[in-house]
Each structure stands twice: as structure tokens, then as C-alpha cells.
Amino acid sequence: MAIKLEKVTEKFYQSLEEGKILGRKCPKCGAVEFPPVYACNSCGNLETEWYEISGNAKMHSIVMPAPLSSKPEYKALGKFAYGEIELEEGSRFNGVVRGMTKKKRKQILEEGKLPVPVKAAIYQRDGYKTVVFDLVEE
Ligand SMILES: [Zn+2]
Fold first, then answer.
1. What distance in angstroms lies between residue 12's CA and the mean position of ligand 1's atoms?
2. What is the pTM of this model?
3. Which residues lie closer than 8 Å to 4 by C-beta, 6 or more apart?
4. How far is the CA of 76 from the centre of ligand 1 (A)?
5. What is the CA(46)–ligand 1 centre distance, in A?
6. Separation of 45 CA from ligand 1 center, angstroms?
7. Using CA atoms, how far apart are residues 78 and 10, in angstroms rounded to an integer?
8. Which H or E run includes 4?
9. Same domain, yes or no, for 87 and 104?
10. CATH code of the domain in which 60 resides
11. Ligand 1 geometric centre to CA of 26 (Å)
């Protein structure tokens, strides 16, 4: 099982280099797992397939990073926040959203705008690429 998981991770990062963001889709129930894992969390099916996600998502909660705990590696991201992300394909997970400021967060919460639309992007970190989300401005 450990070897299988490593392969999933490897393929996922390889695809990011090619500009694709992949999840795993269950052919049985249609659920999409992201970040990719082999087994379907919805129905338990072990046979899932690679699936390129659209990148369209919604942000359900906004957590600003604490100034003292923000890691130097995140500085290059600019303004960002953490939050619960829901892909249009259905997966929910915690992610990083760029373009979020304290002021925007306040405005979004005051106007009751959650969830707000976000879009997945591939972000180059030290030596590897990862997936972040950008706030979609209306
Ligand atoms: Zn399934």
C-alpha cells in the first residue's frame, strides 16, 4: 500500500510539471478524490482512474495566517489565507488561497458571501510545484 501511495504522489507531481492538475475519479460512483488517493472515499472502490480537474472551486472558510507563524517559504505567495476548498467535482480539503487580505475577508464575511469562487493554479516552490488557489474577483 505504501508503494502504491508513493506512485500516486509521483504521478501527481509529474503532471504538475506538465501543467495538469490531476485527481482520481471513481468509475463506479463518479466521485473525484483530490488530492489524489487510490481508493474511493465515497464508495470504497479500489479501482480509480486519473482525472484532470477543472480547477473551479469554492472557498468555504477563510483563516488568515498568524503573522508570527507564517513560514518564509510562503512569503513569495504574497497575500494569502488558508481555507476549506470544495472542488466543483466534489472533493473538500484545506488549501492555500492567494489574493486574500484581512480587508477582503472582513468584507466577504460582512456581506455573507461565503462560499466565494476560487480557481486552482500551479505554484512553483523550492524545487517542486504544488497546487494553490486564486481568489476569483467578480
Ligand atoms: Zn466510488
1. 20
2. 0.89
3. 38
4. 37
5. 8
6. 5
7. 28
8. helix 2-17
9. yes
10. 2.40.50
11. 5
